[in-house]
Structure formats: structure tokens, C-alpha cells
Write a structure and sequence with these properties.
- It contains 11 helices and 10 strands.
- It is α/β, with parallel strands linked by helices and 310 residues long.
- It has 2 domains: 9-248, Alpha-Beta Barrel (TIM Barrel); 253-304, no CATH class.
- The strands form 2 sheets. Strands 1-2-3-4-5-6-7-8 form an 8-stranded parallel beta barrel, surrounded by 7 helices.
- It is globular and about 65 Å long.
- Residues 55-78 are annotated as: Disordered.
- Mg(2+) binds at residues 133, 171.
């Protein structure tokens, strides 16, 4: 099942910036990702790790954003990834890990093995996000997930669960020789494919970063596009993007009202031994049957009740 905790916006916070780490705790966002990978220069990796450690330790235990860390990729540098995990896994404030550049099930198994060794008893289960950032990763992902779901590799539910797949557009473009444009046409197929894989395995799908972070109209357009092809949320690289993203990936008041109307009409129809009923929505007459009920009513109702109050 797609996790009940919302993942509409996942905001990256550079691990090398103490100031941004401190400010991040007051941001109303579904998930904070303290980044130890792309936003940190190689010579600052150790210092950033320490900053994230202290930032997590000082985090309030009250309800708020999910706090995750994007570690360095095991597929590229296992030593760096191991150092990240050794310092951060013992922290109870750590709720999620973002594993970049997942190319093989061994990348995830490595993280799970370290969690088994380092996670203290009673810690909250870790929410794992796997990043699809290459053509090979996208094509292998079903096999990776099948292997990880097998009895010999499946983590205990008290330790961790794979909650989402995340599309890394810039690295994906580089791996596939794609020229990225504002139209996003060239990325439609791989984004749709990744979203479908996520849904097939009961996970959330997280869309790519909008790099034009000062262009709100374009961000809205990109969010709408992602929601229409099945994404549940989107990565953010600036706090100014968060409110727009979270609004775009939540149902509007009208959508919730329509969902409730459809559900009531269908239930009344069932009582009258009808398999389909006519419903008036915004001046249009639509026919509602069981599949339509799922698409228009159940999905909107589920999203509307996914804990949007912190």
C-alpha cells in the first residue's frame, strides 16, 4: 500500500549549511531531506555529516515534517555511504533514508544490513526512498524490487520499509543522452514508467525537481503534469516551492466535495440495485459505476485524509 503519511513535497536541505538546517525545522513541509550527496562538495562531506547529525539531534520530537537523509550512493562510494550510516542510523530522530543512484538490489541490501546492525531497538521504522537516476536503474527496478521482497531480503517491518521511488531527472538525462527541455516531452515516457512501477509495488512516486525555482507558473504547470501521470509528490530545492507543490498534490475543496457527492450517489444506487448512476458535477452529467467510484471518489477521499495537519 502507498504510505498513509503524505509525501507531496520533499525539500532538500544542504547538509553543509548549518544555517539552512536550523531554519528547516520551522518549514511546513511533508518531508525534509538533509542532503549529504549532490549539494555537498567532496572536501565537505565529513563536516556536512556532522552538521546533519547535530541538526537531527536537536530536532523537536513533536509532530512535524518527516526527517530523512540523502546519503552518499553505495553504488558509487560504499565507504562514504557507510560513514553516513554509521553516524546517523543510531539517531531516533532519523525517520527516512533516500538512497541515490540505486543500480542493483545490493545497494539497498547494504543499507538494510547496516540498519540491522546500528538501529537501536524501539526506533521508528525507516522509510526508504529509492532513486531512479539512470536508464539501467529504471529497467532493472522491477527485478530489484522483486528480489528485495523475497523472504531472504525482506526487512522486518519494525526496521524499514521501501515507501517510494524518486525520479532523478538530471542524472537520468545524462545516462540516456537526453536533452532536457522546458516542454518535458523527452522525459514523459521514463517518468510514466517509473510512476507505474511504483504503483505496481504499492509505493509512492516522487517526481523530478523543477529547476526553474523562481518561475511559479512553470512550477504549477510541472506539478499538474506530474499529478496527471500518477505522481504523488515532487522534490523541492527551495522553500519557496513547497506551498505550491503541496497544494498541487492535494485535492481541491471542489474535488473533495465532488468525491463525496459521487460516493453518496453510488451508495444510494446500490441500495436501489443499480450498478451505475447519473451524477451532476459542475453542470455536467456523468455516469458513475464501480471503477469511476475508485478514480473520482475513493482516491480523492484517501488523499484528503492522509494526515495533512501536522
Amino acid at each position: 500500500m502507498i504510505p498513509s503519511r503524505p509525501t507531496r513535497a520533499m525539500l532538500y536541505v544542504p547538509g553543509s549549511s548549518d544555517k539552512m538546517i536550523r531554519k528547516s525545522h520551522s518549514i511546513e513541509v511533508d518531508t525534509l531531506i538533509f542532503d549529504l550527496e549532490d549539494s555537498v562538495a567532496n572536501h565537505r562531506k565529513g563536516a556536512a555529516r556532522e552538521s546533519v547529525y547535530h541538526g537531527l539531534r536537536s530536532a523537536s520530537s513533536s509532530k512535524g515534517p518527516q526527517r530523512a537523509v540523502r546519503i552518499n550512493p553505495p553504488s558509487s562510494d560504499e565507504n562514504l555511504a557507510s560513514d553516513d550510516l554509521e553516524l546517523l542510523l543510531p539517531l531516533g530522530q532519523l525517520e527516512g533514508l533516500v538512497i541515490p543512484k540505486v543500480e542493483h538490489e545490493a545497494d539497498v541490501a547494504f543499507v538494510l544490513s547496516r540498519a540491522q546492525q546500528l538501529r537501536p531497538p524501539g526506533s521508528p521504522p525507516l522509510s526508504l526512498t529509492l532513486c531512479v537516476e539512470s536508464a539501467a536503474s529504471l529497467l532493472r527496478m522491477p527485478s530489484i524490487l522483486e528480489t528485495l521482497s523475497s523472504t531472504s531480503h525482506r526487512p522486518s517491518s519494525s526496521l524499514a520499509h521501501i515507501s517510494s521511488l524518486l525520479f532523478g531527472s538530471e542524472d537520468f538525462c545524462h545516462s540516456a543522452g537526453i536533452i532536457r527541455t522546458r516542454s518535458r516531452r523527452e522525459l514523459l515516457m521514463p517518468r510514466q514508467q517509473m510512476a507505474l512501477i511504483a504503483k505496481a509495488y504499492g509505493m509512492a512516486a516522487i517526481d523530478m525537481v523543477c529547476i526553474d525555482y523562481k518561475d511559479e507558473e512553470y512550477l504549477i504547470e510541472e506539478c499538474r503534469d506530474g499529478a496527471e501521470i500518477g505522481f504523488d509528490g515532487k522534490q523541492a530545492i527551495h522553500p519557496a516551492q513547497v506551498a505550491t507543490i503541496q497544494k498541487a498534490f492535494a485535492p481541491s475543496e471542489q474535488e473533495v466535495a465532488d468525491a463525496e457527492k459521487i460516493k453518496r450517489a453510488y451508495e444510494e444506487g446500490v441500495k436501489g440495485h443499480k450498478g451505475a448512476v447519473e451524477v451532476e458535477l459542475s453542470g455536467r452529467s456523468v455516469m458513475v459505476d464501480a471503477p469511476m467510484l475508485k478514480v473520482r471518489a475513493e482516491d480523492a477521499a484517501n488523499v484528503a485524509t492522509r494526515g495533512f495537519v501536522y
